[in-house]
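Progress note, sequence design subtask.
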C-alpha cells in the first residue's frame, strides 16, 4: 500500500530505528509498502522511518527515463534490512541531494566515493557488496535516515540549501 511520506517536521524522522529481529509477515508488508511508495514518489530511495516505521530497512531503485542522456547506469530494486556500511573510502565527492521528506529542497552533500555494505536480503541471506557513484550516495543517504539524520543536517548551514523555480 502506498503510504504517506513523513516530512522534516516529524519527530519520528529524528529517532533511531530498531534492527529487524526476524523476517516475518510484518516486515514483508513493510518492504512491499516501501517499494510501492517509492515507485509512486518519483524518488530513488526510501527508508522505513520515512513512512513512520522505526525499523532498519530501506529500498532503492534508479531507472533512467527513456531518451535520457544521463550516463548513470540503472540500479535495480534493492532491499536492505539491518544494513551496515562496513568500509568507506577516504575520498569524498560533493553532489546534489534531495529528499522526499524535505520536498523541493536540495543541497550539495559530501559523501564517501566508495562504500562496502553488509545487510540482510529479502531472502534472509546476508549480502555484502562494494559500490560507488549514485548507488553509494543513495545507501549513505538512506542509512542516515535509520539514525535520525536528514541530508540537510550535513550542510554547513541552511543557507547552502536551495530550490528550483518552476
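Output:
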Amino acid at each position: 500500500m502506498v503510504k504517506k511520506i513523513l516530512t522534516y517536521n516529524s519527530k519520528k524522522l529524528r529517532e533511531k530505528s530498531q534492527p529487524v529481529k526476524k523476517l516475518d509477515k510484518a516486515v514483508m508488508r513493510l518492504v512491499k509498502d516501501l517499494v510501492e511508495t517509492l515507485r509512486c514518489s518519483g524518488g530513488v530511495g526510501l527508508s522505513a522511518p520515512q513512512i513512520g516505521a522505526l525499523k532498519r530497512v530501506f529500498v532503492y531503485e534508479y531507472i533512467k527515463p527513456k531518451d535520457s542522456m544521463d550516463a548513470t547506469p540503472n540500479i535495480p530494486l534493492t532491499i536492505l534490512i539491518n544494513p551496515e556500511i562496513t568500509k568507506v573510502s577516504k575520498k569524498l565527492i560533493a553532489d546534489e541531494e534531495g529528499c522526499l521528506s524535505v520536498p523541493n529542497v536540495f543541497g550539495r552533500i559530501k559523501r564517501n566515493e566508495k562504500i562496502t555494505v553488509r545487510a540482510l536480503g529479502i531472502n534472509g541471506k546476508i549480502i555484502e557488496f562494494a559500490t560507488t557513484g549514485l548507488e553509494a550516495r543513495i545507501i549513505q543517504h538512506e542509512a542516515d535516515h535509520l539514525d535520525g539524520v536528514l541530508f540537510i543536517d550535513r550542510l554547513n548551514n541552511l543557507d547552502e540549501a536551495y530550490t528550483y523555480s518552476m
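The first strand starts at residue 45 and ends at 47. Work on this subtask will continue into the next period as scheduled.
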